[in-house]
Amino acid sequence: MTRSLDMMQDIERVLVTEEELHRRIREMGAQLTAEYAGKNPLVVGILRGVVPFYAEMALAIRTPCQWDFLSVSSYAGTESTGTLTFRKDLDIDIRDRHVLILEDILDSGRTLKYIRELLLERGPASLKICTLLDKPSGRTVELEVDYTCFTIPGAFVVGYGLDYDDYYRNLPFVGVLKPSVYEK
Ligand code: IMP
Ligand code: MG
């Protein structure tokens, strides 16, 4: 399918601006720097939507840390398929490590619940979750996250790493996608 050159045509409204993203991530980074000082955390990113958030947050965490990534998938289009596929495991052993998971968005909670349980079995010293966005209205499983940058309403959003059909990730803000885009 040919994509319109103007991605903005498909955006209903901007939910979180570039400035708001940068400001909040710097603020959260300062908090995480203080909380992880002396703990040499392993910062784990959940690919691929987390990439812009990870890049910005990992530079805002100013204490010695290591980076690693894992990849799971639960979505097809705008609907969770309910089936999680584990595509890439971590490279680093997390036993006795302080692990901080970074995720782009928490919706039903299934993805993070699955990853959390999987990693807890490996015996980390601690395991915490920091999400850029939280959509509490979408929750179907119980899950506690430790750090949330923004709480948002229950609309399908794209940009700053978040995709629809793997597009729109490169929008520099978080915006609500026009339902007409996926209701075709
Ligand atoms: P959960 O397992 O339902 O919590 O969904 C988490 C994953 O679903 C995220 O990592 C995203 O990849 C995807 N997701 C959930 N809501 C949205 C959205 O509004 N826009 C884009 N992706 C989303
Ligand atoms: Mg994701």
Briefly say what this structure is.
The protein is of the alpha/beta class. It is 24% helix and 34% strand.
Task: Describe what this molecule looks like in 3D.
The longest helix has 19 residues, at 18-36. This protein is globular. The strands form 2 sheets. Strands 4-3-2-5-6-7 form a 6-stranded mixed beta sheet, with helices on both faces. Strands 1-9-8 form a 3-stranded antiparallel beta sheet. The model has no long low-confidence stretch (mean pLDDT 94). With 184 residues, it is of the alpha/beta class. The protein is 24% helix and 34% strand. It contains 4 helices and 9 strands; from the N terminus they run βαβαβββαββββα. α1 (18-36) packs across α2. Inosinic acid is lined by residues 49, 74-75, 80, 103-111, 156-158, 162.
Q: Structural class of the secondary elements?
A: alpha/beta
What count of helical segments does DSSP give?
A: 4
| Range of strand content | 25-35%
Shape: globular
The ordered H/E elements are: EHEHEEEHEEEEH
- Round the Cα radius of gyration to an integer and report it: 16 Å
